[in-house]
Specification:
Structural class: mainly alpha
Keywords: Repeat
Organism: Streptomyces camponoticapitis
Order of helices and strands: HEHHHHHEHHHH
Protein name: Peptidase
Pfam family, one: Clp_N
Distance between the termini: 24 Å
CATH superfamily: Clp, N-terminal domain
Low-confidence stretches: 108-116
Domain Clp R: 2-183
Number of domains: 1
Number of strands: 2
Number of helices: 10
CATH architecture: Orthogonal Bundle
Length: 183
Amino acid sequence: MFERFTKGARAVVTGAVAQAERTASPQVTDEHMLLALLDSEGTRSAFAFASLGILDQRASVEAGLADARRRGGMSSADAAALAEIGIDVGQIVSKVEEAHGPGAMGVGGTAKRGWTSHKKFAPEAKKALEQSLRVALGRGDKEITDGHILLALTARPGVVSDVLADHGGTYGAVERALFGAAG
């Protein structure tokens, strides 16, 4: 599959690995891919982020991702669903942090020391990359671009797509920004 990746798409993957290393994360996640996409310049995804105003909201995007990490990776939709049945996730997180310290429920952790510095991709990150291939093939494209990776991140349910949607980055909006009204 990686032979189909353009230079820009490969840069997203290597940027995601760099993001994981910077945060001492044991795995490369879809969150790291989003942050690598936000760091890219002169690409289709950078244009889409700019046209949707997401670049101007980067701090808010990062705060949304951090908030989800604090909730143990639970999306805001999951927290809202639990609230409907009387479970206050914020209260649970506060009690856990009170007992075990700030960030106790956080996803990630420190990287394990070993013989290799090779970072493994988390299952959700692998699925997002697989989804980018499906997005490209569905559009009739022979190569996978950074734009296809961005669309894949918006198409997969979870924290990354929730945070993007909260900032105007739904699948439809991103698709229009990347490829125009005709999609």
